[in-house]
Amino acid sequence: MTPIPFALSVLCAALAGCAATAPQWESRFGDAARQARASQVIDPTASSRNITGPVIDSKATAGAQTNYATSYGYAIKEVKPPAITLVQGQ
Question: How far apart are CA 50 and CA 53, in angstroms?
């Protein structure tokens, strides 16, 4: 083997290692994930609008929960006051 073709092949191999291919690959890194996430969003501006939900009072909520529980045959446990009250004496 002659030294000139061998040196030329080593030089070409060394220069191939310096080729700038990574910026081309990295410029599109994550595009598929961003596209999949964007396709799942129905309304991207929904969080910027200040829309209040329906207002319901606590008495109506408690009644609705009780009616729901009785319709399926289980009872809602009532909160009982504690049996022992601790009072710090003088």
Answer: 10
